[in-house]
Amino acid sequence: MRIDILTLFQDMFDGFLNSSIIKRARESKKVEINIHNIRDYSVYNNKQVDDTPYGGGAGMVLMCDPIFRAIDDLKKDNSYVIMLTPQGKTFNQECAIELSKMEHIILICGHYEGFDERILSIVDMELSIGDYVLTGGEIAAMAVTDSITRLIDGVINKESYENDSFNDNLLDYPTYTKPRVYRNMEVPEILLSGHHENINKYRQQEKIKNTLKKRPDLLEEKNHEKI
Ligand code: ADE
Q: Are 40 and 73 within 8 A, CB to CB?
């Protein structure tokens, strides 16, 4: 899997690319992540990438040309181009699973007050990470890249994501580690029993309880899907 990210703020990705699971996944060549500065694709004076909006209004608008040139340069037959914007489809685990099966993804980080609408003509999908507005698409691109990368075969232990929250529209079950008693709070007895079948049953029940308590909307969604 290859992910190319177009941004005006390359530095923001330094810590992300060089820490933890993303670092390991890159080093073991499970994923190749390239960060490109949109400014490098500008042929205007002073590497200009944005301009004032036609019709007036506040702020600067990301121009078409640097983005079109970048996509011309990076896009292959197997590429899927995504624009990060608060107006996009809301990202979720199902979407992460679908994207993790792709060979090449190009993520465009929008910035400032917006982008020239004509950029959407070369975009396969607009994606948002939630109903709030960030200063730019960089944090969204990191969130999307992170959740996709951990699903790529061999990046993390399969067991670690088989029980992920949101699989089957259920949240995860609660987990505990040592010590067995902490400030009078005890680990549920069943987890100490060594009886794997009972533990699995208990965990399945806890997933449903947890979801009913914290995210009942997920169970409603599941029922709707059945209808
Ligand atoms: N850019 C600004 N806000 C965003 C959001 N919520 N999701 C994706 N990209 C964004």
A: no
pTM: 0.94
**Of 101, 136, 68, nearest to 1 (Cα)?**
101
Q: Structural domain boundaries of the chain?
A: 2-149, 165-226
pLDDT value for 112: 64
CB 85 less than 6 A from any atom of ligand 1: yes
Q: What is the per-residue pLDDT across 131-142, written as a single tens digit (0 to 9) for each?
A: 999 999 999 999
Q: Which CATH architecture has domain 165-226?
A: Orthogonal Bundle (1.10)
- Please give the pLDDT value at position 222: 67
Contact 33, 146 (CB under 8 A): no
**Which residue minimizes the CA distance to atom 2 of ligand 1?**
134
Q: Tell me the per-residue pLDDT of 30-48, one tens digit each, with 9 for 90 and over.
A: 999 999 999 999 999 999 9
Ligand 1 pocket, 25 CB below 6 A?
Answer: no
Catalytic residues, by residue number, are: 86, 113, 150, 164
Q: Is 130 in the pocket of ligand 1 (CB under 6 A)?
A: yes
Atom of ligand 1 nearest to the CA of 132: 6
CATH says 2-149 is which class? alpha beta
The closest residue, in CA terms, to atom 6 on ligand 1 is: 86
Q: How many other CB atoms are there within 10 angstroms of residue 11's CB atom?
A: 10
Q: In angstroms, rounded to a whole number, what is the distance separating the alpha carbons of residues 214 and 69?
A: 46
